[in-house]
Amino acid sequence: MQNRDEFYKKLKERLEDTTTFPTKYLYKFIVPANKDKTKEIENIFNYAGAVINTKDSRTGKYTSVSVLVDMPNSDEIISKYLEAEKIEGIISL
C-alpha cells in the first residue's frame, strides 16, 4: 500500500512539473485476453473524446489497450489509474 501511495505521489509531482493542463494523456494497459476486461477499461473512459485502441498479443493470452484522452489535471489522470487498478489482472504501463 505504501509503495502504491508513493508511486502516485511521485507521478503527480512529475505530471505537475512537466505537463501543461489540459493535455492529451496516453494510458497504456495490458489485460488478460478477455473481452470483459477490455470492456471494463472502455467503461472507465466512457466519455466523448477518448480514442481507444486494442491489440492482441502474439500468443493471444493478453490484450494491450491504449487510451488517448484529454485530461484536465493530474488528479484526474491518477483517478483513472486508481479506477483501472480494480480490474483483475491489469498491468498499467
UniProtKB/TrEMBL annotation:
Pfam families: DUF493
Superkingdom assignment: Bacteria
Gene3D superfamilies tied to this protein: 3.30.70.260
InterPro entries assigned to the protein according to its UniProt record, in alphabetical order: UPF0250_YbeD-like, YbeD-like_sf
Protein name as catalogued: DUF493 domain-containing protein
Organism of origin: Urechidicola croceus
Phylogenetic classification of the source organism: Bacteria, Pseudomonadati, Bacteroidota, Flavobacteriia, Flavobacteriales
